[in-house]
Amino acid sequence: MNDSNKFSEEEKKILLDHDYDGIQEFDYPLPNWWTMTFVLTSLFGIPYMIYYLFLGGPTLRQESELELAKIKTVRTAYAVKMAKFDHQAYDKVIAEGAASKGKEVFIENCASCHKDGGEGDVGPNLTDAYWMHAKATPETIYEVVLNGREDKGMPVWGEDLTKDEILAVVFHVMSLTNTNVANGKEPQGKKVD
Ligand code: HEC
Predict the structure, then answer these.
(1) By the 8 A CB rule, do 164 and 93 touch?
(2) Which of 29, 102, 120, 183 could share a disulfide with 172, CB 3.0–4.6 Å?
(3) Which residues contact 161 (CB under 8 A, 6 or more apart)?
(4) Residue ranges of domains in the chain
(5) Which of helix, strand or coil describes residue 154?
(6) How far does residue 93's CA lie from ligand 1's centre (Å)?
């Protein structure tokens, strides 16, 4: 049912043959933007395919491995930097009020095992003169807090606390030593004078 009279001569030239329930269609050219996009993406695709398929361009897995290697280098450098007790940073943290900051960090993170006053519970008494891992010096306490003793129930803090927080809490633990708080846990380890 091709009612061709309703179209002009121009329109008839581009009118397509088919007729679906009275619906007909002109054969318009594709819009330029569409053709250009098609051409550009095709052109882009050629070197892209050559690079990734034939010239050994990195796969997604290789790219993520590269990224991970970078992260690992940064983390290792950070760990090495953290591992060394930084006397200057310690002095700075003390000058900036480590006494109250350290106590705050201690109450929040350590008191659950060492009790508020450091008298010990799950973790050892930090107010006596007996030590198992540390030796009542900032350097040794720092090392234990940083690395933890996970097999013995002392968590690793190097990843959860910042360096300044650890230094502040070390200062706080130093201030607890030999305060011999009442009802403290029985001594563990060796006496350190
Ligand atoms: C989940 C419980 C737990 C938490 C939380 C915890 N500790 Fe401990 N800590 C322990 C245990 C258990 C030990 C003793 C490990 C052992 O028996 O060898 C210990 C040991 C230590 C020691 C070494 C004591 C010694 O005798 O050498 C220090 C110092 C210490 N903790 C400080 C801290 C600080 C500071 C925090 C908070 C940042 C903290 N701990 C949080 C359980 C804990």
Answers:
(1) yes
(2) 102
(3) 105, 109, 145, 169
(4) 4-54, 83-191
(5) strand
(6) 21
Question: Would you say the CB of residue 113 lies under 6 angstroms from ligand 1?
Answer: yes
Q: How many CB atoms lie within 10 A of CB 93?
A: 22
156 pocket-lining for ligand 1 (C-beta < 6 Å): no
Q: Which atom of ligand 1 is nearest to the CA of 130?
A: 26
pTM: predicted TM-score of the whole model, two decimal places? 0.71
pLDDT in tens, 74-133: 988 888 888 889 999 999 999 999 989 999 999 999 999 999 999 999 999 999 999 999
Give the Å distances, CA to CA, from 14 to 21, 35, 43. 19, 19, 30
Task: Give domain 83-191's CATH superfamily.
Answer: Cytochrome c-like domain (1.10.760.10)
What's the rounded Cα separation, in Å, for the pair 142 and 155?
A: 13
